[in-house]
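Progress note, sequence design subtask.
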């Protein structure tokens, strides 16, 4: 079972995918968005999702981002895989050793309204950047209000997992002292195709994560290589910021970004980028 937001016959629905059928929440709970659904349950046991009615074929719907309008910015972690931290030459941080491995998580945020979905075409903003780049990341969706949590309390507070491409304009990122602008251009937060419930993935997740550009594998990592793992990140953030159901955390990207290749390979018109995470799926976008 996967949670999704999709367009069917011109209307937006939230619901669950079971095998190759979509079942909207409408018949079960009335019309709610997936974000409203997550907020409504806030850590309580989720209801039974036995298929109700015939559903509609996945071939007849268009997936959009599972949470297309996050209620606040995406929480992001920079340089959270050692091999990626080493490949990035530029640094504006002062808390790093000579190998550029962060000693504390590098937190930043990106705005994502709307987050775009699987299959969407993303503008390259060529009037502003010549260095658009991809970053495949495991996205964690919070399912329960969380404050001052221990690492042991984190597993029960996760609603599910998705795929995020933390698209970044490298020249804009480096021009300004803060990464926010270069990470937040319109369309630069593809997400999805769906959210896989936390109950279906062993904790902490040990999932292969890849990115393919025009069929060429550029990133090939595993989420167990995170420098700061999910229990640490979420517990650490919750010491000072209350996390709410529907908050989304992008956990960082493994090595292989276009910026670090020789010569660099930035995204260009006509490119197809596929971010793939084991047990979650493939997030495909066109540029
Ligand atoms: Mg990133």
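Output:
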């Amino acid at each position: 079972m996967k949670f999704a937001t999709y367009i069917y016959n011109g209307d937006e629905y939230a619901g669950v995918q079971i095998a190759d059928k979509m079942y909207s929440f409408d018949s079960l709970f009335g019309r709610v968005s997936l974000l409203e659904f997550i907020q409504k349950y806030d850590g309580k046991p989720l209801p039974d999702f036995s298929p109700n009615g015939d559903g509609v074929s996945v071939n007849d719907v268009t997936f959009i981002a599972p949470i297309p309008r996050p209620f606040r910015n995406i929480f992001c972690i920079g340089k959270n895989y050692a091999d990626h931290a080493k490949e990035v030459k530029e640094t504006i941080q002062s808390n790093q050793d000579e190998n550029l491995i962060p000693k504390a998580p590098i937190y930043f945020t990106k705005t994502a309204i709307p987050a775009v979905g699987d299959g969407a075409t993303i503008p390259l903003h060529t009037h502003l950047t010549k260095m658009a780049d991809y970053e495949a990341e495991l996205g964690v969706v919070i399912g329960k209000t969380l404050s001052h949590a221990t690492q042991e309390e984190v597993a029960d507070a996760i609603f599910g997992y998705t795929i995020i491409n933390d698209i970044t304009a490298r020249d804009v990122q480096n021009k300004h002292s803060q990464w926010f602008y270069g990470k937040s251009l319109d369309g630069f937060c593809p997400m999805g195709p769906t959210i896989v419930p936390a109950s279906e993935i062993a904790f902490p997740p040990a999932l292969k994560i890849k990115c393919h550009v025009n069929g060429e594998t550029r990133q090939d990592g595993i989420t167990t290589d995170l420098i700061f793992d999910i229990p640490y990140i979420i517990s650490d953030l919750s010491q000072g910021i209350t996390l709410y159901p529907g908050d989304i955390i992008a956990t960082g990207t493994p090595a292989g970004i276009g910026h670090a290749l020789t010569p660099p390979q930035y995204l260009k018109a006509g490119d197809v980028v596929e971010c793939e995470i084991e047990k979650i799926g493939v997030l495909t976008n066109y540029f």
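Helices lie at 26-29, 34-41, 82-87, 170-175, 180-183, 230-238. Work on this subtask will continue into the next period as scheduled.
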